[in-house]
């Protein structure tokens, strides 16, 4: 199965005169954005115009979209900074770190692209990559751009049924996986699927012995000098900025996982907003805790770092207390991770202090940030904490800013990056704005759609291209938002939406709680509030202990849990989100 590339269109340099875009031929000069010749002349306005074509013209005018690609970024860095470290990939159990400088990364990209051609990969084909955080993921990402393929990143803990669904939907021609992971025989499972799926022609295996019917990755991709063999063919294949580039599968909290399809430009605009917010440049050394197969890892981590000429450091196993070794060794300037990971890191620094004086930014998302975490990170790491919010459908949309006070991450998810717009609607009436309600977004970072699920994607779109995020948010008073909960999980008290995410974060800090979530047992807004906790140790807290803990954190009495249930572990999606629908099935009231 192939995806048709966006029809090629001539581009010209387009200077701006008196705030208006002038579409005319001009010589190419670095740093000046590109604009399609058949797009309208557009005056810069704020907010952006509703007309889609006018907005897209502005995306090019402002540099959010561009004619260059991420592969062009890599080539530029290999010329400008050939021997600067691009990747530091720590293998914890082998007690070693694999490193690549920019010349090596560029060379391996061409080599891997040649290896894909040898396997029959055609422009528009999907290449599935099921890996933990290993160095091979990085050149494979760029090799897919070079060969004209759409990369489909998949986590190594993905169950076989979910893997089958993703391979079947995309009709991936090649699957690159690892021999085994956490005692799961991934290579053997992949070979079994290859025999079952007509579209899956090859399985390549990294590490260990490749089973019968699979290709040894090192033998085919690493040890054979494919670079230069297919150059002429590859030059005509490379993905263009608006072509389908990557498909990211959603967490599947409300049903079957959907494949979010992005172009390089929709990803670039989000990355551009991210790095501009923090004034990042070639001095960036990013220590990333999230998987490279997820948006935050491959986009805000790999692609952003290479775009700037920085360095990205990561490790393959989840051992949060070891992350500061990477920070110290490579002089990390930015640390990215979810709040629970950052809590572990702060505790580790207290127990075993490392030199983290190079850190400037600690960036977090996926869960609410509370004041104690901001205080802990400032005290232990000497760095300021920033909060962001985003989705697979659009990347980082809102971020707290450098000009805010240092504690604002504990009160807000920030205001939108320049490439995106946000609004809060009344939950049952999208034509009316509200201080608390349904969060909708639109802009240059919005995905192309759901692969083979166009109707589902369009259901989330209003006529003027506002995307329904499915989240309930409130206005933070500074042009930004604070996420309260998923709309499907909302509970109200006296007409007020219970701030589920904030309360969950508070409960998670109870010394008898390892993890906690809130849910309405029947999914109705008038539901009682059920707290489901995983105890830390053998003794679990009582309901009254939880309620008293929340009172001490100044939680509104109306929002205290009415009921408590205890589990050994919470049911979760592949990306670590709690499956609240499963909890409602377990603890529902009739």
Automatic annotation (TrEMBL):
PANTHER family: ACYL-COA SYNTHETASE, MEDIUM-CHAIN ACYL-COA LIGASE ACSF2, MITOCHONDRIAL. It comes from the Bacteria. It comes from Streptomyces lancefieldiae. Keywords: Ligase. This is AMP-binding protein. Belongs to the ATP-dependent AMP-binding enzyme family. Residues 502-577 form the AMP-binding enzyme C-terminal domain. Residues 75-451 form the AMP-dependent synthetase/ligase domain. InterPro entries: AMP-bd_C, AMP-bd_C_sf, AMP-binding_CS, AMP-dep_synth/lig_dom, ANL_N_sf.
């Amino acid at each position: 199965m192939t995806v048709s590339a966006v029809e090629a269109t001539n581009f010209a340099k387009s200077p701006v005169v008196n705030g208006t875009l002038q579409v005319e031929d001009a010589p190419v000069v670095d740093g000046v954005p590109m604009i399609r010749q058949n797009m309208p002349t557009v005056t810069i306005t704020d907010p952006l115009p509703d007309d889609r074509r006018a907005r897209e013209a502005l995306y090019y005018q402002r540099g959010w979209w561009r004619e260059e690609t991420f592969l062009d970024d890599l080539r530029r860095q290999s010329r400008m900074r050939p021997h600067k470290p691009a990747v530091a990939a720590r293998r914890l159990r082998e007690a070693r770190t694999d490193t690549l400088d920019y010349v090596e990364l560029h060379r391996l990209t061409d080599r891997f692209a040649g290896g894909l051609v040898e396997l029959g990969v055609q422009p528009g084909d999907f290449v599935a990559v099921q890996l933990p955080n290993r160095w091979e993921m990085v050149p494979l990402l760029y090799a897919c751009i070079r060969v004209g393929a759409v990369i489909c990143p998949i986590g190594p803990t993905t169950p076989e049924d979910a893997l089958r669904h993703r391979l079947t939907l995309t009709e991936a021609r090649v699957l690159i996986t690892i021999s085994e992971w956490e005692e799961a025989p991934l290579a053997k499972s992949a070979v079994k699927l290859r025999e079952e799926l007509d579209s899956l022609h090859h399985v390549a295996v990294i590490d260990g012995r490749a089973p019968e019917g699979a290709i040894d990755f090192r033998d085919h991709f690493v040890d054979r000098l494919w670079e230069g063999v297919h150059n002429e063919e590859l030059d005509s294949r490379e993905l263009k900025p608006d072509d389908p580039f990557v498909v990211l599968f959603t967490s599947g909290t409300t049903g079957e996982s959907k494949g979010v399809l992005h172009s390089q430009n929709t990803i670039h605009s989000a990355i551009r907003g991210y790095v501009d917010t923090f004034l990042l440049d070639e001095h960036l050394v990013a220590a990333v805790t999230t998987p490279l197969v997820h948006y935050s890892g491959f986009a805000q981590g790999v692609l952003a770092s290479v775009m700037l000429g920085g360095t990205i450091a990561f490790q393959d196993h989840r051992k949060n207390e070891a992350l500061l070794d990477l920070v110290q060794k490579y002089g990390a300037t930015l640390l990215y991770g979810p709040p629970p990971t950052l809590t572990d890191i702060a505790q580790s620094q207290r127990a075993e202090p490392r030199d983290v004086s190079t850190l400037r930014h600690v960036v977090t998302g996926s869960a609410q940030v509370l004041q104690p975490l901001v205080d802990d990170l400032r005290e232990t790491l000497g760095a300021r904490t920033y909060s962001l919010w985003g989705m697979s459908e659009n990347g980082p949309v809102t971020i707290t800013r450098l000009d805010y006070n240092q504690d604002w991450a504990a009160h807000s998810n920030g205001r939108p990056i320049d490439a995106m717009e946000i609004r809060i609607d009344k939950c049952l009436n999208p034509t009316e704005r509200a201080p608390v309600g349904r969060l909708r977004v639109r802009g240059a970072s919005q995905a192309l759609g759901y692969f083979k699920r166009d109707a589902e994607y369009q259901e989330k779109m209003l006529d003027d291209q506002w995307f329904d995020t499915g989240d309930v948010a409130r206005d933070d008073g500074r042009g930004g938002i604070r996420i309260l909960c998923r709309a499907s999980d909302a509970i109200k008290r006296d007409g007020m939406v219970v701030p589920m995410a904030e309360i969950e974060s508070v409960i998670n800090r109870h010394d008898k709680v390892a993890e906690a979530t809130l849910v309405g047992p029947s999914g109705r807004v008038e539901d009682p509030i059920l707290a489901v906790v995983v105890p830390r140790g053998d003794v679990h807290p009582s309901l009254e202990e939880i309620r008293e803990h929340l009172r001490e954190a100044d939680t509104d009495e109306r929002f205290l849990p009415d009921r408590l249930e205890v589990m050994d572990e919470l049911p979760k999606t592949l990306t670590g989100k709690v499956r609240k629908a499963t909890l409602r099935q377990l603890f529902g009231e009739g």
